[in-house]
Amino acid sequence: MKDICADLLAEYGELAALAENLTAPQWLLRSEFYGWTAWDEVAHLCYFDETALQSVTHPQAFARDAALLGQRMARGEAISVVAREHFGSLAGPELLARWRLAYGRLVSALSRLDPKARLAWYGPTMSARSFTTARLMETWAHGQDVWDVVRLRRPQTARLKHIAHLGVTTFGWTFVNRHLAPPSSAPYVELSAPAGDTWTWNEASAEHFVRGSAEDFCLLVTQRRHLDDTALQVGGDNIRQWLSMAQCFAGPPANGPAPGVRRVVY
Hints:
The chain is an alpha+beta fold. It has helices spanning 2-20, 24-27, 38-57, 59-74, 79-87, 92-111, 128-149, 160-169, 171-176, 214-221, 237-245; strands at residues 118-121, 123-127, 188-192, 198-201, 209-213, 233-235.
């Protein structure tokens, strides 16, 4: 668990460093992600990092609170509203301080687990390692919204490989989640990494493939960009269909942005 926990802590720290320099007006700037502000993005992460810690340390309490949250969602309440109720009295810097405390405690707790230990979440249980990887992915994705809203290009790191791996391994699930039959064969995925090396998944294919930058692929599978707003090369109708609805995060089917909606000019 040491390697993935170190990467998770680094991902948290990078976003926290950006948030620390936000001005009061910047905390309230609205992103293209459902109109969420930078404050909303950090509040969302803080809320689920606190519930993640609860899953690790007090699973029975987590199960109770997760059921209550599920009831609120079933009534049509937005998760952003829940987070605003939870942290509404906190200004940006105060929220940031609470989040730093939460994620520090979470990483510490996760680092002591067996990687195969099962943890409850909002859906099926997850291994501790997968659980940690999912927290990194969500932090990166919501962090991208903050980087976008302040029109700054974020540095890219090898931590993208964790997110890309989730994107590739949720290929079949993306179809099943929409009650569609998944294609019989997984795509060959070849991505250029930030350091200049190449990451690949599945058997090489000249017909069914995705090629391009790891950053573009991660932006796509976290639904932060439309395929047309990336430079990814795609082969095969089934693969293009997958990328039109890909999501590497749990939950009911979600639709990504339309072309051009989240294109950012730095």
